[in-house]
Specification:
Radius of gyration: 20 Å
Number of domains: 2
Shape: globular
Structural class: alpha+beta
Largest sheet: 5 strands, antiparallel
Helix content: 25-40%
């Protein structure tokens, strides 16, 4: 997670997430995720958020102060890759382009989804390493994807120039999608959102983090275990990991801290 002072500064100015989103020309969902530290802020968006809060970027994203100062002073011998990594750790994505993953999977499924600049560089390095195998996890705008490299038959990294984000509210989906190696269409399941954060709970109830667990185990390389989860009807589904080409989960289902914040905002607006 990435630390920032957006929530503190927003509340000090008496702004709701919706009002800040309007001022920064982005969506409330983006503000929710960036504020909660679950998503990098593109530098152009971070600039607009900071302007809306009446603060310099270094005050909104405190950990970015030193690397930003180094870049501004054009320090001799500055390692721009290192500075970029430091800014990423501080919650900023300074990649000038918007990146999209175009893919084809074994079985015929194909499509695309946007990713951040740092994730593009990570995926690019993985794809160039013939020894890499297993799943790669990639957060996107409103879903998180886990792609099985063994069944990724084609991938192209496309770029475009940034534009103002579409502020249209996205309908919250409960659907988890699983693509099998012999199918072009995903299996769809409706699932309850996780209610705990895996990284903050020492011994959580398995059902409270079941969707986060899916990504945790494939990221840890446990790609031969059977994946399972309980759907909205209380029925458990099982998958043989090696036969899954890709699965994706709506981000809000695996980010209870974002969901809680949105509920608080909604209640506050209703009471006001």
């Amino acid at each position: 997670m990435f630390e920032n002072r957006i929530k503190e500064l927003r509340k000090a100015r008496g702004l709701t997430q919706r009002q800040l989103a309007d001022a920064a020309e982005t969506s409330q969902q983006q503000i929710q995720r960036i504020e909660a530290g679950n998503q990098l802020a593109r530098f152009d968006l971070a600039t607009r958020i900071s302007a809306a809060l009446g603060q310099p970027i270094s005050k909104v994203f405190p950990s970015a102060e030193v690397p930003l100062a180094r870049m501004k002073s054009r320090t001799a011998g500055l390692d721009h890759q290192k500075a970029s990594q430091e800014l990423e750790a501080a919650g900023l994505d300074i990649e000038p382009d918007v990146w999209t993953v175009k893919y084809k999977l074994r079985g015929g499924a194909e499509g695309n989804f946007p990713i951040s600049g740092p994730d593009m560089h990570r995926l690019n390095a993985i794809l160039q390493d013939d020894a890499e195998s297993g799943f790669v996890v990639l957060p996107s705008v409103d879903r998180q994807y886990a792609v099985n490299l063994k069944h990724l038959t084609f991938c192209q990294l496309l770029f475009d120039r940034p534009s103002i984000e579409d502020d249209a509210a996205r309908e919250k989906s409960f659907e988890v999608h699983f693509y099998l190696t012999d199918s072009t269409e995903p299996l769809r399941f409706e699932v309850e959102p996780d209610t705990s954060l895996l990284e903050r709970e020492e011994d959580p109830d398995p059902l409270s983090v079941q969707l986060q667990d899916l990504f945790y185990y494939v990221e840890m390389g446990a790609d031969r275990r059977r994946m399972s989860f309980v759907d909205l009807d209380g029925e458990r589904a099982f998958f043989r990991s090696d036969d899954v080409s890709m699965f994706s989960v709506p981000l809000w289902l695996i980010e209870p801290n974002v969901s809680d914040e949105e509920d608080d905002e909604t209640k506050g607006d209703q009471n006001g």
